Amino acid sequence: MTKIIMNGCNGRMGRVICDIAGQNDCEIVAGIDKNTETNFNFPVFPSPALCNIEADVIIDFSHPSAFEGITAFAEEKNLPIVIATTGLSGEQMQKLDMLSQKIPVFFSANMSLGINLLIDLVKKAAKFLEGSFDIEIIEKHHNQKLDAPSGTALAIADGINSALETPCEYIYERQSRREKRSKTEIGIHAVRGGTIVGEHSVVFAGYNEILEINHTAMSRDIFAAGALKAAKYIVGKTPSKYSMSDMIGD
Fold it and tell me: Residue ranges of the alpha helices (H) in 169-243?
């Protein structure tokens, strides 16, 4: 059974991961959270520096502000880490690359297998339709989500860009731009409301036809299960940066 330290254990996703860990041959042996309420049968520490519990791997599903503390803890304890937190800055992503030279690091903007398949599909579509179809990405999430656009929307856009001969510029809003849409842009739009778990749509708009590829998350369980699979996958790996495509490919 894989023993896990859960950073952000009392957050929305952290609680789901703790709920289903046992069903995935995993055990949460300690939690880290500013809210030290103990809803489960393991100790909760207010900061990584205070955690003295041995484990096989760390899952971080928290907030970018917790990044420095949890990555320093992972490096100090020589523990593999799964980073599922979105909204990381460019500097934090660079630090993650540096950390992966010392310990195994698994990073994904979205832990859903379906989303990662969507990224593969839209890359193929973008390569085939380049120059004749406009591309727009629409993402919808609950009204408690802090970052916009979502990390998943940006990962989709990055995937599309990697497949294009001429990379596109990301346009996040249009109300300040009184000009025609250019052919070399990807529009990215964020909707926040209610309890939407997560919806992502990629629209390819051409002459008299529209191709739309969608993914709808019906439950947070899919992200939790993906994070637990990633945690099991990364234990025993050599230092490097791993992703969902690595896990799926293996």
Answer: 221-234
Round to whole Å and give the CA distance between 86 and 109: 6
Q: Tell me if residue 241 is catalytic.
A: no
Catalytic pick among 145, 200, 215, 232: 145
Determine the Cα angle at 194 with ends 193 and 196, to 5°: 85
Answer whether 0.70 is exceeded by the pTM: yes
Neighbour order of strands in the sheet with 134-141? 169-171, 185-192, 134-141, 198-206, 209-217
Say what the pLDDT of residue 202 is.
Answer: 98
Residue 90 CA, distance from chain mean position: 15
The low-confidence residues of the chain, meaning pLDDT below 70, are 249-250
> Which entry of 123, 141, 189, 200 is annotated as an active-site residue?
141
User: Are β-strands 134-141 and 198-206 bridged in parallel, bridged antiparallel, or unpaired?
Assistant: antiparallel
| Dihedral sign computed on CA atoms, order 46, 51, 55, 59 | positive
140 annotated active-site = no
